[in-house]
Each structure stands twice: as structure tokens, then as C-alpha cells.
Amino acid sequence: MQITFRPARADELQAAEALVVRSINDLTVRHGFGPMASLRPADFQLFSLKDDPDGLWVAEADGDLVGFAFSWVCDDFWFLAELFVSPDQQGRGIGDALLRRTFEQAGKVGAVNRALITFTFNTVSQGLYIRHGLYPRLPIYFFKAARDSLNNRRGEADHLRCMDIRNTELDRERLAEIDMSALGFSRAKHHQFLLSDANNRGVLFYDGDDCVGYAYVHSGGHVGPLAVARPGNMGAGFATALKLAEESGAADVSAFLPGTNAAALDAAAGHGMRITFPMVLVSAGEFGDWSRYLPRNPGFM
Ligand SMILES: CC(C)(COP(=O)(O)OP(=O)(O)OC[C@H]1O[C@@H](n2cnc3c(N)ncnc32)[C@H](O)[C@@H]1OP(=O)(O)O)[C@@H](O)C(=O)NCCC(=O)NCCS
């Protein structure tokens, strides 16, 4: 069967996401975790395609979509958001070929680091990334709880004040400063993306007059990204975001927590949240202070 690789088009991103969902659920069911993914609008993919089409690629066989890869760049940092091959086409070199094409984007922009988040239980993806010089560095756990079962720990959230993020020079500067110090690069365009979604609430945390962090809380109860100025702000920041998620009225509350982030893990355990999926951050070089940052999801980071 002849496989062709070409840049992705906007009108096929939703079909590509359907392939991604099929591929994730095939993997998670095979490993005993049950289906993990459900189809959502391809908003971030479309946003990223408009920003830089070099990062989105499809593989086709006889006119059918059999693979999809999607990467984004911020400053000199490259991130692989998605790499998925149709379950019946895996193990034939398609993933490797798609990965090489997204790497061309990293080369073009002169990225100094490359990273992604994958499933800890997928030996194939990790083996493929290691072969390309991207090494497993940090466990990341998807924690979840039914809202009604959350333990009441409200006292921990009381001392931070929340202000909705505004589209002002000052708030943009605050976000950029926190991202630069926690991650090493600015995510200005990604904040714009998050704030343009009416389902997301973005807040800045204040301790007195000091801006000490930010968080996004989705109407579906998901927390992240969340970043704080100092590790000491994480416990209260995460507890505050959980309180907002609880108040959203969603059925579940969830977040992705780095395995080295003791304050967030303690808060999650204290609230009665459960580990649902183990994931791992893979990268070419070390980066990020993970005691100060919680990713949104494996694609957004
Ligand atoms: C991961 C995925 C994208 C890889 O695509 P693929 O087309 O199946 O992979 P390829 O055939 O191009 O490459 C597979 C490579 O994985 C590596 N590999 C496979 N099993 C391995 C193992 N047990 N240990 C180490 N390396 C292994 C090998 O390098 C292999 O290449 P080789 O056969 O030439 O030696 C695909 O399998 C997939 O969609 N999996 C499910 C979803 C997923 O986990 N996606 C990644 C999300 S970040």
C-alpha cells in the first residue's frame, strides 16, 4: 500500500481528531485503562495551523487518513502535541515518517529544545522518541474526582485573591513574566487562544498586592495550565483553582500533575482525587520548574 505524507488542511482537522481519538482509545483499552478520549472540536489544531502550518502533517493511504502529527513552537521551544497512527497501520514506519516531518519545523525555527507528553504504558512511542534523542524525564499524572466526592479543604484556598485575566498590556506582561520564569519561554499566543474560549475562565492569583500566579479553569471542571511565581505558592494556587472548578458545577474535577510537584500532589490526595492515567514528559533537554507549573493536557502542555 502506497503511503503519502503531506501538510494538513484546515478542513480535515476534525477528521484527524477522530483518528486521534480512535488511536488513543485503542491503546488505552488494550492496556486495561478503558477508553480515555472523546471527540472535541479541533480548535487548538486550527489555531496552530493558522499560526504556523509547518507543524501539521497527515499520512494517507488510498485516500484515507491513516496518520496525523501536530507540533507547535513558542520562542525557541518546540513541542509535539499529537502523533497518532490508525491502529491497523501501526508498526510500518508511518509514525517515524510523520515525526521527521514535524522535526523540520523545529529545524526551520532553530528550536533549542524539543518535548512532548506521551503515555507511560506505551513502549512503542517512548522507544520511537528515544531513538530520536527525546528522553523520558518526568512522570505526569492525570488526577480526577467526582465533584461531589471532593473533600472540603476550603481553608487552603482562602488566602489568595482571584482576578479575571484581562486583555491588557499589564496582564499580558504578568503572564509572560511567570511563563518565562517557570518554563523558560513566553506563551503569549496560547494565552490568547485560551482566553478566546468562553468555556475557559482565566484568573491571576494575588497575595496582597503581589501577582503570584495564574490558572485556567474549564467549565467542564478541568484545571490547567496553572503557574505560580514561587514553589511556595503552588499549594494555595492549586487549592484555589480546584475551588473554582468545583464552583463551575461540572460533574468531575481534574488536572495533570507533575510527579515532582509535591504541593500539588498533596493537595490532590487531600481532596480525594484519584490517578486515572500515568503519562510522561519526554524531552531533548531539561527545562521547566515543575514545582511551579501544571500542564493543561498532553497536547497544550
Ligand atoms: C506511537 C505511534 C505514533 C508510532 O507510530 P508507528 O507508525 O506505529 O511507529 P513506527 O512503525 O514508525 O515506529 C515504531 C518504532 O518504535 C520503536 N519501538 C517499538 N516497540 C518498541 C519497544 N518495545 N521498545 C523500544 N522501541 C520500540 C522502534 O524504534 C520502532 O521502529 P523499528 O520497528 O523501525 O525499529 C503509533 O504506534 C500510535 O499511534 N500509537 C498509539 C498512540 C500513541 O501512543 N501516540 C503517541 C502519543 S505522543
For the residues shown, what is the average pLDDT? 96
From the N-terminal CA to the C-terminal CA, the straight-line distance is 35 Å
Q: What portion of residues belong to β-strands?
A: 25-35%
* Ligand list: coenzyme A
CATH C-level name of the largest domain: Alpha Beta
Give structural notes.
Helix 7 (234-247) runs parallel beside helix 8. The model has no long low-confidence stretch (mean pLDDT 96). Strands 1, 2, 3, 4, 5, 6, 7, 8, 9, 10, 11, 12 and 13 form a 13-stranded mixed sheet that branches. Strand 9 and strand 10 form a beta hairpin. The chain is α+β, with helices and mostly antiparallel strands and 301 residues long. It contains eight helices and 13 strands. It folds into two domains: 3-111, 3-Layer(aba) Sandwich (Aminopeptidase), CATH 3.40.630.30; 143-278, Gcn5-related N-acetyltransferase (GNAT) (Aminopeptidase), CATH 3.40.630.30. The chain is 32% helix and 32% strand. Bound molecules: coenzyme A. The site of coenzyme A has 22 residues, from helix 1, strand 4, helix 3, strand 5 and helix 4.
Task: Pick out its properties.
301 residues; alpha+beta; Aminopeptidase; 2 domains; 13-stranded mixed β-sheet; 13 strands; 32% strand; globular; binds coenzyme A
